[in-house]
Amino acid sequence: MITAFDRTAVEVGAALALPSPKARELVRQADALHTRLPGLGALLAAGEVDYDTVAMVLDRTDLVHEDVMAQLEAALLERVRGWACFSRKQLRDAVDALVKEVDADAVKQRRTRAYDQRRVSVAAEADGMAVVRGTMSAEDGAALDTRLTAIAKKVCACDPRSLVQRRADAFKALTLGEPFGCMCGRNDCPDALAATPVASTPVGSTPAAPPRQSLPMGRQVVLNVIASAETVTGLGNAAGYLLGYGVIDAELVRELARDATRRLVEAPRFEERQALTYRPSDALARFIRARDLTCRFPGCTVPATRCDIDHTTPFDHEDPAAGGWTVPWNLACYCREHHRHKTFDTGWRDQQLVDGTIIWTAPTGHEYRTVPAGVGLFPGLGRARNSAERRRVAAARQRLHRHRDASTYNRYRNQQARDEVRNRRWRNGFRGRYLLFKGEFAHNAPSRSPFGRFVNDPFEPESLPPDWHPPPQDRADPDEPPPF
C-alpha cells in the first residue's frame, strides 16, 4: 500500500534531487514539527535554534506518547535556548533526561527500536575509498572492537602498517573470510607461517599476499566495474565506474581487471523479433545497467544492479507488435520503491526519448528530466539502433561522402563571392569619394599613392555573374615559415 507519506516523500525527493531515505526523513521531521512540536518549529523558523539541534530533539522524542507531548514541549522550550553551546553528546543527554522525566517507557521503547534497526551501510568516499558504518548492540560493538584489535596485534614488530591500518585489514578479512597475516616480507617471520583464514581461528596468520579464500557461506563477492577498453588495456586513462560506489581512477580499474571476467558492453544490435519478447537478453540488460548506472528517478542513487529493468511504455503481452517493445529506448532502471510508484497509479508519468533521457511528470504537473549517467562517462553507450536504422544511417553516410568534395567547394565559393562583393563595394566607395573631392580634375590628375591607385580604375559591378569562380584554393599551411 502506498500511503500519503510515501507519495509526499517521493515528490520532495524529486523536487530537491534527494535520495529516498533523506527525502523521507525531511518529510517526517516536517510532520513532527507541524503536529507534535509546533513551538519548536516556530523557534527554528525564527532562527533561535539551529537545524541540528531540532533534528536531535525530533529523533530522541519520536516515541514519546501523545498525551505527554505538550508537557515535554513546554519543558523543551524553557531550556532549548540554553543548549546553544552544548556538544552533541551533551544535547542528547539533556533531551533524554527530559524524556525520562515525562515518559520513562519511551526510553525503553527507543532501545528496543534501535536494536530492531541495526544495520550496516557502505558509502563512497573520495580517492577510491569507502566508508563502512554499522549499528549494533553495545555489547556486540565492544566485542567487535576488542576482536579487531586482538587480530591486528597478532603480527610481528616489523609489520609496516599502523594499528589503525591493521584493524581495517582485519575487518576486511573477517568480512570476506580471508586470511590475515604479517606484511613485513621476511622469510623467517613467525606470523607468516600459517595460512588459516581469520574466519576459522581467532588468531590465524598468513603470508603477505595470500590467495583469496571463499566466504564461509560458499558465496563469492562480485564487483561490477565499467570501463573503456582503452583504459583496461592501458592505452588510455579515462575513469571507470564501480557499480554501487562511483567513479574510480584508471589505475584501480586495471588492478581490478587483472584477474577479472570481462564482458563487452556496447549498444546491442538487435532485430525486430528480439524486441517482441518481454524479457531483455543478457546483453541488452548489461547495456541498460551500464547506461543508467543508478535508478532513473530524480535524485535516486540506488545502484543499477539493485534495480528492476522496466518498460517505459508497458509491454503488450497480447499483441507485442502493438507497442511497448523491449528496446533500449523503452527500458530503464528503477529501484523497487519508484517502480511501485510508477506501476500503481499514483499520478507519476514517465516518457523516454530515443537517447535515453526520461521526462518525469509529477502529480502536481511539475516535470523533471533525468539523463543516463553512463553516457556522460562512456560515450560508446549512446543511442542504440536497430538493423533497419543502421542501414539507413550507413546509406546516408555514403551519400554525404560522395558529395563531400562538391559541398566543400560550394562553401569555399560562396565565402569568396561574399568577400569579392564586399571588396568591390569598398573600392567603389573610395573611387566615389576621390571623384567628389577632385571633381572634373579627377581624370586629369590620377592618384599617385602606392596604396590607393585602385581609385584610378573604373567603377566595378557589385554583382557577380553566375559563372564567376574564385581563384584556386591555396591549401598551403598558413603557419609555414617562408624559405629565407
UniProtKB/TrEMBL annotation:
InterPro entries, per database record: DUF222 (IPR003870), HNH_nuc (IPR003615)
Region entry Disordered, spans: 446-484
Protein's UniProt name: DUF222 domain-containing protein
Organism name: Mycolicibacterium gilvum (strain PYR-GCK) (Mycobacterium gilvum (strain PYR-GCK))
Domain DUF222: start-end pairs: 4-292
